[in-house]
Amino acid sequence: MVTFRHLREADPAVYEDIAAGWARPASALEATSDDIKREVAGLGGWWGDAADVARDHLSDVRREYRTTVEYAERVSAVLRTLADSVSDAQQRIGRVMEIVDSTYLLSVDPDTGTVRANAGGPGDTRTDEEKAENRRLAEELGEEIQAAVDDATEADQAASRQLNDLMPADAGLELQATGADRVVRPSDFPDAGDSAAEVKEWWDELSPLERESAIYTHPDRVGSLDGIPVEARDRANRILFEESYADVKARYEALDELGEERTSEQQREFDQLAGTRQGLEAINDQLGREPSEAYPQAYPLDFDTEGHGRGILATGNPDTAENTVTQVPGTESGLHSMASELEKADQLIAEAGFESGGDAAVVTWIGYDAPQDLGPATNAHYAEDAAADLRSFQDGLRATHEGGGGHNTVLGHSYGSTVIGHAAGTDDDGEPNLDVDNMVFVGSPGVGVGHASELGIDTENVYATTAENDVIRGTPRFVHDKQPISADFGAHEFPSDPGPDGDWYTLGYSGDAHSAYWHDDSDSLENIVTIAVGGTPDRTDTILAPGADSGDVADSPGV
């Protein structure tokens, strides 16, 4: 039985969240049911006993999926109705409490909800009629509270009866499609410290039905776990994305309707949601785009709408691509910058796909909390915090590649190059921390080390370019160490177009030149593609051995 205290302390949002938790797998199962229907239709040319058995089995599975969808949707509806009933009862009690709080003549027992009229005492000038009126009001308000509590109790009992009638056995479902021993539970997932290779080994040991269970019941775990194949992460993240995108749009529209009535806190939320919404729209457009020869299918590999947001999206399948580039953007990146970053990925995939016969993938990796201004970008801690996640992601690409590893390149733009530098190096056994074939630093302020030999891979595979007019050239050496295009850094410098000129007071440097590396027909784009597909780019470098004196090199920045 619901009490007054229970009702006042209840949180209807909890029921809403649980209802959403039931609605999400229902939607996913419905989509899978439709997939099964299409697959069965595609068996039209298969005949015989085996074909009949397969069709019957798939039809049975589809029927049970549809039944499960129906019951899950009914559970969700029951919980939403309960949430509405509790919320309505709380509002009624709230109105009573407003009346009580407006006068010292009434009080409410916090446990029972009984409303009492104060008896008064010496100095009480009320007439008997006024006292009687206060007692009448107290009785009336008490009845209103009791009616609200009774209605909440009735709603709770009704929800309990309805949920009891929605048990799997009542639907004729006894986990027959998967089996009770084939359900993947949270405790079954690999430990947080397990490597991507260990995660892949765990995944391979699951049966197909166990994998389906993991995807549909724990999409948040599957979608973000390095070492799980791209197609499985894609399916899990699409389940999560649909709900998250809808929630962000709904919240943004609600705040938008408030207009000038928004509080300062709501205004800050509104401004941030505007960027988050734009980023999710860009991802949604990419996911809905019809794959073509130039622009292959997109695969969401992780995303998060908290703060400035994160997002990892592959254009092309890294598990099957011969050549994969992971692009790490820099300062001011987040979900709000996703549209522009995906445009860069499109520029690169179109060229790389052409050069490699369509066998390429480009990953947009906004997988860290980037500095949002130039001041914070002088600090290394953003890169240090991102290093482990970038390493894990690259390990995952190796572990899940169907051809044994592929040819992998990491490309860091601006502060993104600093992230790569801090993720690189070697472990205690002398093995590379960042398992990649090439590192490419574009418009880099410095990568946190003084020489390419400290990055853990062969210096022959470390490349750098900075446009002649790129404002990043003005970054002092003490910020993130030498810039990779310094002659004494040891990377191979390749040419870029100069980029737009700056003003006289910026010494000709410009911010526009800092973001021009992906322009059509630019030297930088052509050379980046060449590196990505395993070729040798044009070179403009004069490489000195570690510790050698660069002398008075006029073009050596950061000096």
From TrEMBL:
This is Alpha/beta hydrolase. The lineage of its organism: Bacteria, Bacillati, Actinomycetota, Actinomycetes, Pseudonocardiales. Keywords: Hydrolase. Residues 304-478 form the DUF1023 domain. SUPFAM superfamilies: alpha/beta-Hydrolases, EsxAB dimer-like. InterPro entries: AB_hydrolase_fold (IPR029058), DUF1023 (IPR010427), ESAT-6-like_sf (IPR036689). Residues 112-131 are annotated as: Disordered. It comes from Haloechinothrix alba. GO terms for molecular function: hydrolase activity.
